[in-house]
């Protein structure tokens, strides 16, 4: 796969991820936990079929003897699936997406404290600026009170669970390299997370009240907004460097806000826009500087190799 094609597919992935908000705004009768249940159930079904075709019978054999880290990762996926859908039923899509955008910086922070990775000054600066942006948005939501603040607090569980998940994945990969062995296949954790999310939210969603139209929209989300782009993202992670993927993932925020603005008339507040600009600006600056630094090191190594 060429780099240009990988970038184009990653943009498609973020476009698919971004439609959750606008589709949810057109539901008729499904409530918050029922929305989560149906999306997770259809996601689990699609992943079971997709992974079954990719991995064959060994998928189910590996699940029966899966190590604990796979189940911890699955629990993180379940929190992300559940908290995201509940959050967008409580507050604006823009506020949820801006809160989720701090995920890469939280991941860097967790890697520093739990994996002892060194963080450059630019990343510490980005964390500080993004913190100001989130704090600004939280402050205004707190003054508004009610479900708006609750929605942002629930949304905060998504980047926290994501940061824990990516830290686990980094730990698994580095441990395998240190031991010169094959790393644990963490892809089934995505399926585990979908199943856990569906099972946990079913009792909370009962009795089910979704209309046939609602179920069809949530089936679309489960298959095309979650299962397919998640499988694509895992494949693209073999081609694109992590900083570039993180930078491209920010398009989900822009696409998601645009979708609900144009498709549901949901205009983001000034506080959300200001906080979002701070968060996105910090992330873009951090990831762009990381790419420049990485290319600079590559040129330096190349010059060293061809030096007579």
TrEMBL record:
<dbReference type="GO" id="GO:0016020">
    <property type="term" value="C:membrane"/>
</dbReference>
<feature type="domain" description="EamA">
    <location>
        <begin position="151"/>
        <end position="284"/>
    </location>
</feature>
<feature type="transmembrane region" description="Helical">
    <location>
        <begin position="151"/>
        <end position="169"/>
    </location>
</feature>
<protein>
    <submittedName>
        <fullName>EamA domain-containing membrane protein RarD</fullName>
    </submittedName>
</protein>
<keyword id="KW-1133">Transmembrane helix</keyword>
<keyword id="KW-0472">Membrane</keyword>
<dbReference type="InterPro" id="IPR000620">
    <property type="entry name" value="EamA_dom"/>
</dbReference>
<feature type="transmembrane region" description="Helical">
    <location>
        <begin position="94"/>
        <end position="115"/>
    </location>
</feature>
<feature type="transmembrane region" description="Helical">
    <location>
        <begin position="215"/>
        <end position="233"/>
    </location>
</feature>
<feature type="transmembrane region" description="Helical">
    <location>
        <begin position="68"/>
        <end position="88"/>
    </location>
</feature>
<feature type="transmembrane region" description="Helical">
    <location>
        <begin position="189"/>
        <end position="209"/>
    </location>
</feature>
<feature type="transmembrane region" description="Helical">
    <location>
        <begin position="274"/>
        <end position="294"/>
    </location>
</feature>
<feature type="transmembrane region" description="Helical">
    <location>
        <begin position="245"/>
        <end position="262"/>
    </location>
</feature>
<dbReference type="InterPro" id="IPR037185">
    <property type="entry name" value="EmrE-like"/>
</dbReference>
<dbReference type="Pfam" id="PF00892">
    <property type="entry name" value="EamA"/>
</dbReference>
<feature type="transmembrane region" description="Helical">
    <location>
        <begin position="37"/>
        <end position="56"/>
    </location>
</feature>
<keyword id="KW-0812">Transmembrane</keyword>
<feature type="domain" description="EamA">
    <location>
        <begin position="6"/>
        <end position="137"/>
    </location>
</feature>
């Amino acid at each position: 796969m060429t780099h240009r094609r990988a970038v184009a597919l990653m943009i498609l992935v973020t476009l698919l991820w971004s439609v959750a908000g606008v589709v949810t705004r057109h539901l008729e009768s499904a409530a918050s936990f029922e929305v989560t249940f149906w999306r997770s159930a259809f996601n689990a079904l699609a992943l079971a079929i997709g992974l079954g075709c990719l991995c064959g019978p060994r998928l189910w054999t590996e699940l029966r003897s899966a190590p604990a880290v796979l189940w911890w990762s699955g629990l993180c996926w379940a929190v992300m699936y559940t908290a995201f859908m509940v959050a967008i039923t409580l507050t604006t899509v823009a506020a949820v997406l801006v809160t989720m955008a701090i995920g890469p910086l939280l991941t860097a922070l967790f890697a520093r404290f739990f994996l002892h990775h060194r963080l450059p000054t630019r990343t510490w600066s980005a964390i500080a600026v993004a913190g100001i942006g989130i704090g600004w948005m939280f402050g205004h939501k707190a003054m508004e009170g009610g479900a708006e603040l609750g929605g942002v607090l629930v949304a905060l569980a998504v980047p926290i669970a994501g940061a824990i998940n990516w830290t686990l994945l980094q730990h698994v990969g580095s441990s395998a390299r240190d031991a010169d062995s094959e790393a644990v296949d963490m892809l089934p954790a995505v399926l585990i997370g979908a199943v856990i999310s569906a099972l946990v939210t079913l009792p909370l969603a009962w009795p089910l009240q979704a209309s046939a139209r609602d179920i069809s929209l949530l089936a679309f989300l489960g298959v095309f907004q979650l299962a397919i782009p998640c499988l694509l993202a895992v494949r693209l992670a073999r081609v694109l460097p992590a900083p570039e993927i993180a930078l491209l993932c920010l398009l989900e925020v822009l696409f998601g806000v645009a979708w609900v603005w144009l498709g549901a008339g949901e205009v983001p507040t000034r506080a959300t826009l200001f906080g979002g600009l701070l968060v996105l600006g910090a992330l873009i600056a951090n990831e762009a500087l990381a790419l420049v630094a990485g290319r600079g090191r590559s040129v330096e190594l190349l010059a060293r190799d061809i030096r007579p």
